[in-house]
Specification:
With 444 residues, the protein is an alpha+beta fold. Helices cover 52% and strands 19% of the residues.
């Protein structure tokens, strides 16, 4: 007689089913509690700030805490959505990555930014979309990651939130659910902060427009006067007898140089007010790229500022600029950038000090390396770290802090990078890297 294994009856299987159902209910309840806690914490963190950089920092810290991850970053898109900029970084080399620009088409961040849908990657080595350059740059090893879009409500993404390397286990779909809440609330608060800033700046921009119009009217007599003076000098020197004409030739040339400087400066003053107004409004005319010799641009800046520097007992120097090849650049914008850096340095340098503009090639990266170094008093960390942001701090009485932001906008428009190194009592060095031709703004 055969013996068959005893299977549980239908009635006997009910407890197991109930237990399994209860476990699933408990798991769902635990997940809901995690999501509610994440929402509570991110709301509490973000409600304390209207400053975008502080919002981004608090949001990233909260995201890492609620999913138990080691590192992360927030990347925000530029105005044209062609590039993503590392706005805040935790757990990786923050000083090296913050401000770094990458194409919005690259990596998993680019995929999420374009699609607007989050992704969880349990092993980045096995995913061909991973962009390894950032790991190579920082020496950090990304194991697993979640990238969530930062999206306007029913709108396009404004950036992405990256979370890397869960401390225990691997990042999964449950973590995506939590980070989706965090990213949605973060994007909403960023947009709110931007609207708040825009409302404050709108009136400033309007006033700057009025100032620019008035300034143009006030400068017109200067322009007209220099034209009359030039005509008078040309007639005077032209009527001199040959011996006097020969002696006066050098004087005539110096007068023409001075008149030319006044005319160019009046044009740049009006142009500068417009640039500042555009910067405040967050607008910018398309750059006009053409072959440009950096040495000529810098020399124009130093020629304008040499008298001011001499009055303070400073020396303005250049090194290596003549050896640089032409680059593709908007000469007007490049002039504004170097003028800002040198002019801002002059009040910071004591008598006997110097400001030096250097240039050299970086063949390995196909970049031109430019630096503006001074022997001034240096900057404290809070001022240094606020540079190139909308919250830039100025030590000058009545200063706006917009100067260095304008410099950053110029460098960004040229597809370059800018960094600053400053030590109190030692001096400050700004380093600009600009690409050699051909310039491709769609690439990193």
């Amino acid at each position: 007689m055969s013996t068959y294994p005893a299977y549980p009856t239908t009635a006997e299987s009910f407890p197991n089913r109930r237990q399994s159902s209860r476990r699933n209910d408990d798991r769902r309840l635990l997940q809901r509690e995690r999501e509610l806690e994440a929402a509570r914490r991110i709301c509490e963190a973000l409600s304390q700030h209207v400053d975008i950089d502080k919002l981004v920092e608090r949001a990233l810290r909260t995201a890492l805490e609620v999913v138990g991850a080691e590192a992360g970053s927030v990347l925000l898109a530029d105005r044209d959505a062609k590039h993503l900029v590392f706005r805040h970084v935790i757990g990786v080399k923050a000083d090296q990555l913050r401000g770094t620009v990458m194409s919005s088409d690259l990596g998993i961040a680019g995929v999420v930014f374009k699609s607007g849908k989050p992704l969880v990657i349990s092993d980045v080595k096995q995913d061909g979309r991973h962009f390894p350059y950032i790991d190579e740059l920082t020496g950090y090893r990304t194991r697993d990651m979640i990238v969530a879009p930062l999206k306007r409500w029913e709108g396009e993404p404004i950036g992405v939130l990256e979370i890397l390397n869960k401390r225990e286990g691997r990042l999964d779909e449950d973590d995506i659910s939590i980070l989706t809440i965090v990213s949605a609330l973060t994007a909403t608060m960023i947009e709110q902060a931007r609207l708040f800033q825009d409302s404050k700046l709108a009136e400033v921009a309007r006033l700057l427009g009025d100032i620019g119009h008035d300034l143009k009217n006030m400068l017109q007599p200067v322009v007209s006067g220099t034209c009359l003076l030039k005509a008078e000098l040309d007639e005077h020197f032209g009527s001199l007898p040959p011996p006097g004409a020969k002696k006066g030739e050098a004087t005539h040339d110096r007068c023409n140089d001075a008149i030319g400087m006044v005319q160019r400066t009046t044009e740049r003053i009006h142009d500068r007010v417009k640039v500042i107004a555009d910067c405040v409004k967050g607008l910018s005319a398309p750059p006009q790229f053409a072959p440009c010799k950096v040495a000529g641009v810098v020399e124009s800046v130093l020629q304008t500022l040499r008298v001011l520097a001499a009055q303070k007992g400073l020396s303005l120097r250049t090194e290596g600029l003549e050896a640089l090849p032409p680059i593709m650049a908007d000469e007007r914008r490049l002039y504004n950038a170097f003028y800002n850096l040198v002019n801002n340095a002059i009040p910071e340098v004591p008598p006997g000090g110097s400001i030096t503009v250097r240039g050299q090639l970086e063949p390995a990266t196909a970049m031109v390396l430019l630096s503006v170094a001074d022997t001034g008093r240096g900057m404290p960390p809070d001022i240094r770290d606020s540079l190139f942001t909308a919250q830039a701090i100025s030590r000058k009485v009545g200063g706006t802090g917009l100067g260095t932001k304008i410099v950053k906008d110029v460098v960004d428009a040229h597809g370059g990078q800018i960094t600053v190194d400053s030590k109190e009592g030692v001096g400050t060095t700004f380093v600009i890297r600009l690409p050699l031709p051909p310039l491709d703004l769609s690439s990193t």
